[in-house]
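can u do me a favor
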């Protein structure tokens, strides 16, 4: 419990501080990483065992499909609707798609190919508007709120994992509790352009997320627990390093 209360908030606060320093898009990439789902898989492996966590990791990979749907729907709605309706509409689409995917368990490789295709289409489907870059101011009170929401999400899913089952827990793990919160606050404070900038970053960061869970799902069955997480994290960081120029460059 202590690890849950310390690790997840630390990751989320780090992403929030990055938004202040480098802007909404970079923050979007960081929250597109498994800041909550990664620690969640670690706690599931410790509490439920590596086989359970491996199935959940494969589910988390498929959970990127409803996350991509959330980003595209919010990105389409936010220039014309307020943050409330945009969030409700995008969250509803996430839940519908996630409910469907929770009923199936295709092979991990097939899921990976599907997710890459969905993410690629989603990035191109985002509205073609100028992307805001640069530092973004945010009040200090947002940091504990963001950290609290993400931590609550991890604690809730670990507590409900046995009842939900490994696959459903994994599919729900990418629920945009943190990224959605950041997007809503950004939309409310700085407007639709900054919100879409962050959503674009979330989608681009999700490629590293996808590889993280492919490697983790394999590693939990072939390596020790810590070796599996180290390999998954190293793969995700490598993707970010390779794509850093595209992440930091403005879209036109």
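np, heres the sequence
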């Amino acid at each position: 419990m202590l690890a849950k209360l310390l690790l997840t908030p630390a990751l989320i606060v780090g992403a929030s501080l990055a938004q202040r320093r480098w802007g909404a898009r970079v923050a979007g990439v960081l929250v597109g990483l498994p800041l909550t789902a990664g620690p969640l898989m670690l706690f599931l492996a410790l509490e439920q065992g590596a086989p359970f966590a491996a199935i959940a990791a494969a589910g988390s990979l498929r959970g990127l499909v409803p996350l991509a749907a959330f980003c595209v729907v919010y990105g389409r709605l936010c220039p014309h609707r307020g943050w409330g309706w945009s969030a409700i509409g995008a969250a509803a689409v996430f839940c519908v798609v996630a409910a469907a995917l929770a009923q199936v368990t295709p092979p991990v490789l097939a899921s990976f190919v599907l997710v890459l295709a969905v993410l690629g289409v989603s990035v191109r489907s985002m509205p073609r508007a100028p992307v805001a870059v640069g530092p973004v101011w945010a009040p200090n009170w947002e940091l504990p709120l963001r950290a609290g929401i993400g931590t609550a999400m991890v604690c809730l899913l670990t507590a409900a994992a046995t009842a939900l089952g490994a696959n459903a827990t994994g599919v729900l793990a990418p629920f945009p509790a943190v990224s959605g919160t950041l997007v809503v606050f950004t939309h409310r404070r700085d407007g639709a352009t900054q919100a879409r900038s962050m959503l674009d970053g979330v989608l681009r960061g999700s490629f590293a997320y996808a590889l993280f869970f492919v490697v983790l799902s394999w590693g939990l069955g072939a390596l020790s627990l810590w070796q599996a997480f180290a390999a998954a994290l190293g793969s995700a960081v490598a993707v970010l390093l390779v794509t850093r120029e595209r992440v930091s460059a403005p879209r036109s």
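The longest helix spans residues 192-222. hope that helps!!
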